[in-house]
Structures are given as structure tokens and as C-alpha cells.
Amino acid sequence: MGAVKRLLLGRPLASEEAHHQLLPKILALPIFASDALSSVAYATEEIMLVLLLAGTAMDPGKNLGKSMGIAVAVGILMAIVVISYRQTVRAYPNGGGAYIVTHENLGELPGLVAAAALLTDYILTVAVSIAAGAFAVTSLLSHVHISRVVLSLVFIALIAIANLRGTKESGALFAVPTYAFVLSILVMLAIGVSRCAFATCPQAHALEHVTPKQLQSLSLFLILRAFASGSTALTGVEAIANGVPAFRGRRPSDQAHNAATTLGFLGVIAVTMFIGITYLANATHARPSDTKSIVAQVADATFHGGFGFAFVQIATALVLVLAANTAYQDFPRLSSILAKDRFMPRQFINRGDRLVFSNGIFVLTAIATVLILIYDANVTKLIQLYVLGVFTSFTLSQTGMVRRWRRLKPPGYRRNAILNGVGAVATFIVLIVVAVTKFTHGAYIVIIAVPLIVLLFKSINRHYVSVAAQLRLPEGRPRQLRGTRALVLVKDVDEATMRALGYARSLRPLDVRAIHVGSGEEARLVTAAWEERRLVTPLEIIPGNDRDLIDPIRTYIRGMNVAEDEVITVVMPEVYETKGRREFVRRRRALLLKAGLLFERRVVVTDVPVLAEENNVTSSRPVVPTRTIAIVLVSAVHNATLRALEYARSLSPTELRAVTFNVDHDETMRVVNEWATAVDDVPLEAVDSPYREVTRPLVKYARQVHASTPDSVVSVIVPEFVVHRWWHQFLHNQTALGIKYALIFEPGIVVTSVPFHLD
User: Fold this and answer.
1) How far apart are CA 653 and CA 671, in angstroms?
2) Domain's final residue, options 430, 464, 498
3) Which one of 114, 130, 474, 745 is separated from 41 by 20 to 30 angstroms, measured CA to CA?
């Protein structure tokens, strides 16, 4: 599995290599502007599809000529938005997406609305662009039956894999198709316009034109609806403002300058191509078709088929598919920002092996796949959900910029405020038009979804705020423990049980108990084997069966007389047939038992694993280690960590260590300083983690500790949150489970989970 991962994604990148992933302008344009550039491939068609409704039975294309005026209006709007966002880029050199700008200048709730609208728009960007790319391919190969849905799913998978490889690699991969598309369209426009100006305009042809089921008269409402559909050409314009930190530059101001320059190039290219395609579509009398897109018809007419037509179609298909890359860049980045602000699960902050926000990529891929399946990869159906989110974020962002200029009043603030104000008013008007004209066609779904997403953000934030408060409560500080009472769970009298019993004794417990859940002949045999060894610790038989261990063990634990300053250490011997993830997951019953026990107050759980080959030779007596080294894992200095430390102290180990892992330098320094203030008797070691993970550095560290004293047992003590509701599990990194899996087969190493119960 690891070999396949390396083949698809490449070698892991260390954190220190992050600066090598910064983008020059020539690569940043195809990465961040592919969505905006590709939108021109279907924006004209969407305008015409609406205007077809105003045709007549004798002349279906009667009012298609109105598309030129609408295209010019959309082009002016795009120019206004681009100029406005150049202001935003310069004002926020560290990244000024709609969420950051709105949150800072208008408040939390408007900021969350902007974030929800943007996330929705990014998801739809993937679905729409991928479906449009699949349509372009089927237009080129109209004589071959290809499923658009299957083709779309293949494209999504390829884009996701490319982005998981890293920002710079995806940029290099996508640069050629994007520039090929721009070049092919500009050449097509030059030839087509020249022929129309100096000769005869070529005529477009399609096998089957779209015929509206119901015609209506041309009205202001219909023109506004066509304008709203054409406004899809603006999608993706904000992406550069979101991704300023990804640009190359020695200082943030240099990065902002490069981003603003790139945004300017984007505006000029996109407006030119959009208006040019609309002009040629009218000049060549192209009409929307189910089998051949408008761009395909214009290219076929301009180049008389042949290589030119094929090249335009291939380039268009590629750039439409690659337009999803803009969303793949910004959805994970925005999700990570929201996660830092505690509005999305913390897992979105984590960077993967290739320094990208992998969890965001996976989630975006999953949701876009569902949309493709639900809407059958139909661009016209998907486009109805589109645009509303992006214009909501446009309006809020530009309004926030006006507020910022008026609040800070830097030199030239009046001019800047006017520029952003014009952008805010223009995009707000379009937002209202889109909401009204597309409401019954699908926009209502987005209008309902955005508030629901905002409510989800608020709910997640309430949980994290509550957790933070509980972790810092003075009354939640752990009291000094008098000691622990060890409880060994006995399934069979074997090597695993002898090691578990030996480990239990090494804890210097207040007492040691051993219990077996069973009945009948099986319980009698276990008792006989136990008595045969004449073990000091008596074995208690609890009536029950191995299919239901949780209830009898939980009942027994609750019946133990445990004082407030004591804990129960449940020691679980486990025999694994082989090393591997399957064996770990296969033992679902044991996993459920551990999880169930962690819900009990003042109970910690320790795994003592043994491989089956080691279990064949059974020691006659408990295997008691000569030394016990306790390692407390520290991710932050709070009540959960301090409780784990207090438990470790209660064991009176031969050696006690505290370890944190240097995933982020600034965060690590903060943890080290807080630890020095809170704990004065146990120094905190910071172990480098160049690949931003805990498990591999921890395994290496634990092995080194054990190797220094081979006759010792290393007890890795993990603070573990126990949440009140099951869905809260998704809001916390499952690091403890990963640590258990990583260490479960390491000889001489056991893992102890110290639960911290969250209300």
C-alpha cells in the first residue's frame, strides 16, 4: 500500500521544503485562474440557452443576438470585480479571501456567511467544470458513446491525485493545457474575426439543436436571467486573493504584487476571450446543441474541422477539467483557516505528505462526486446552483474592504473605497438578479444550504470553545494520586497473560486483581491452569461469555471500592496472529471493549500485545520488567495532559519523561514555555517531526529508549479525549488510535490511554 502511495503521490516533503513550493506568476496563473479562464468556454452557451426561450417556432434563434450586449455587460462587471480584488490583494498581502476580509471588517456572522458561500461555490466549481469537460470530450467524439458520468468521475479522481502530489507539481502539470487553451481560443478568435471582417463569416453546424419545450416572450426578467447565467464567467476571480501566500516573493508585499499582476493578466485574457467567443457565436449563427457545444461549433466552422478543431476541443476539455484545480487549491486552504478559527474540524489544519491540506482535498472530492451522480453530470442542471455563492462572497468581501478603508483611512483611501464600493454595488445587484431569476431553477438549494452550513460552523465552534474551557478550568486540575489498582483481564493462561500480570505488578499498585469472564467448562479449565501455576494473585470468575464482555467488566469495575485519589488500570493482554493493519482492525470486539472502558471515570486502559509465535511458549510465572520507563505525550499544556502526567507519577516509574513533537515550530515553542511554567520536576523534550506526523518519530524515539535498557518496559501514556456525543469524535484528531496501531507490535512497549471526559 505504501509503495502504491509513493508511486501516485511521490516522496514525502519535509516542512523545511515548503518555500520550494511557492509559485512564480507563470505557474500561479494556470493554478489559480484556470476556473475563471475556463468559464468562458460555457458562459456564452448558458446565455444563449436562456435566450432560446424567447424564440419562435419558425425562428428559434430569433433573439440570440441579444447575447452580445449581455456579454459586454458581463465583461464590464468582470473588469470591475478584477480591479476591486486587486485592491484586496494589496491590502491583505498574507491572503485576503472573502472570509478573512469580511470577518475582520464586518464581523463573525457575515464572515461565516462568506465562508459558507465560498465553500459551496468551490464544490460546485468542481462539479460544473468536470461535467463541462466531459461534455467537451463527448462533443469531440460525438460518434462514440461515452458515459459523461463515468468520464466525470475519472476526471475528478485524476485531479484529486494531481493535487495530492503538491501545489507546485500540479501547477507544472496544468500549465501546458491552460496556456494551450488560451492560445487556441485566441488563434480561433483572430482567424474567425478576420474572416468575418475581410471575407465571409463561416457558418456553424450541429447535428441536433436544443429546442425549448415552452417558449415565452422576451422580457426584462428573461434578459436578467440570461445575464445571471452569463455571470458564470466571473467564477474563480477571487481565487488569487485567497492564495496570495502561495506566490513566490521574499516578503508578503512582493507576493501581493505578483498576485495583483497575475490577477490583472487574468482579467484581460478572460474578458477578451469571453466577448470574442460570444461575437463569433453570433456571427457564425451557432446555436446550443445537446451534442456539440458552442465553442465546438465555432471552432469547427472557423477551422473547417481538421487539426484546428480537434486542438481547440482537446484544449477546452482539458482546461474545463483542470478548472476544478482552482477549487482544489482554495477549498482546502479556506477549510484550514476556518479550522484554525474553530469553525471546522481540526483535521483540516493538517498538511499531508506533500505539504497540501489532504483532508480538504478528500472531502471536496467526495462531495463533488455525489453531485455528479445526483445531477447525472448535466452542466445545465448544475449551473443553476452555481454563481449565487460566488457573488455572495464578492459582495461581502468588497463591502468589507469599503469598511476597512473608511476605518483605517490610509493615503488614497477615498479612491480605494470608491473602487471597492462600485464592486460591492455591482456584485450585489447581480446577486439579487441571480437569486430571483434562478430561485425556482435550483438556486433555492444554495439559499437554504448556506444558512445551514453557518449553523454547522457555529455548532462546531461551540463545542471547541466548551472543550477549551473544560481543559483550562482550575477545578479540573488533577489532584495528586495515591496510587493505582491494577485489574488484569484474563482470557487464557498464556504468555500474554503472564506479561500483562508482570506489567501490572511493575506499576507498584495498591492491589492487583485478575478476572475472567466466562462460565461452565471453559471457566473451569482457565481456573485449573491458573491454580496450577500457584500464582499469588487470585483469579476471580465473572459469569458471562466472550461475546458480551463490556457489561460484566463494567459492572465489576463499578463495584470496586476506589477512592477519589485512586485510579483503576485495566491491563488487557492481547494475542495478534500477524503484524498488520488488518489484524488490528479485525479485533473489533477488543476495540469496542477498550472504548467502552474509557467512558468509565477514573479508569485507564493499557494494552499488552504479544504475537502468536511468542505466545506458544508460556512462562510459568509473571514476567515482571526490572525497569519501567513512562513517556507522557504532550500536545498542549492543559488538564488532560496534566492528568496523564499525574497518573504517570502515581506509577513511581524508574524514569519519567515528557515528550512533544515539533510539527510547527511556533506552536512547539509555545507548548515548551507553558510546560516550563506549569511543571517544574519533569523536563519536556521536543522531538523533531519534519514530516508533520507523530507516529513515526514516536516509534523511533520509543525504540531508542527501550534499546538503552532492553530489560525494561516502556509505557507510552496517551491523554485521550472521551466525548459526550458520538459525532464529536469527528471533531478531534484520532491520534491516540494511530499511536496504538503504530506501537502495538513493538516489543517491550505498551500503550496506556488516560481518558479525559468532556461534557
Assistant:
1) 24
2) 464
3) 114
Q: For 176-309, where are the E strands, in sequence order?
A: none
Hey, what's the cell of 437? 431569476
Residues 620 and 664 in one domain: no
Q: Angle at Cα 567 formed by Cα 563 and Cα 570, nearest 5°?
A: 135
Look at residue 474 and tell me if it is in a domain: no
Q: In what helix (H) or strand (E) does residue 142 lie, and over which residues does it extend?
A: none
pLDDT of residue 67: 87
Grid coordinates of 67: 447575447
Secondary structure (DSSP) of 467-485: HHHHHH-GGGSPPPP-EEE
pLDDT-flagged residues of the chain (< 70)? 1-21, 55-62, 96, 140, 142-144, 167-172, 206-215, 578-588, 614-620, 733
Please measure the distance between the N-terminal and C-terminal CA atoms of the chain and give it in whole angstroms: 39
pTM of the model: 0.83
Q: What is the CATH number of the domain that holds 670?
A: 3.40.50.620
436 & 512 share domain: no
Distance of CA 665 to the CA centre of its chain: 22
The cell 494475542 sits on which residue?
A: 575
Q: Which of 369, 440, 740, 700 is nearest to 581 (CA)?
A: 740
Question: What's the pLDDT score for residue 430?
Answer: 84
Q: 314-340 b/e with 16+ CB inside 10 Å = b?
A: bbbbbbbbbbbbbbbbbbbbbbbbbbe
Helix axes 148-164, 324-340, angle to 10 degrees: 50
Task: Let me know whether 716 and 742 are in one domain.
Answer: yes
pLDDT for 268: 93
- 217, 62 in Cβ contact below 8 A? no
Nearest to 361 by CA among 409, 329, 320: 329
Helix (H) or strand (E) holding 333: helix 324-340
Tell me: do 117 and 151 sit in the same domain: yes
**435 shares a domain with 398:** yes
Residue type, 257: H
Coil, helix or strand at residue 452? helix
Query: Counting Cβ atoms within 10 Å, is residue 665 exposed (0-12), middle (13-18) or buried (19+)?
Result: exposed
Q: Write down the pLDDT at residue 568.
A: 94
427, with CB counted inside 10 A (0-12, 13-18, 19+), is buried
For the chain, the helix, strand and coil percentages under 3-state DSSP, each to the nearest 5: 65, 10, 25
The strand pair at 603-611 and 749-757 is best described as antiparallel
- DSSP track, 10-41: -S---GGGGGGG-B-HHHHHHHHHHHHHHHHH
> What span, in angstroms and rounded, lies between the C-alpha atoms of 389 and 55?
30
**The pLDDT value given to residue 114:** 93
Q: Is 749 helix (H, G, I), strand (E, B) or coil?
A: strand
Distance CA 665, CA 686 (A): 10
Which residue, chain included where needed, has cell 509555545?
670
Structural domain of residue 505, as residue ranges?
A: 485-624
The angle formed by the CA atoms of residues 370, 371 and 375, to the nearest 5 degrees, is 120
CB atoms closer than 10 angstroms to residue 450: 22
Same domain, 669 and 614: no
Q: How distant, in Å, are the alpha carbons of 2, 355, 574, 633, 746 from that of 698?
A: 19, 20, 22, 9, 11
Residue in the structure block whose three cell numbers are 501581493: 256
Same domain assignment for residues 620 and 640? no
Amino acid at 428: F
| Three state DSSP letters for 195-231 | HHHHCCCCCCCCCCECCCCCCCCCCHHHHHHHHHHHH
Contact partners, residue 563, CB within 8 Å, separation at least 6: 482
* pLDDT (0 to 100) of residue 80: 87
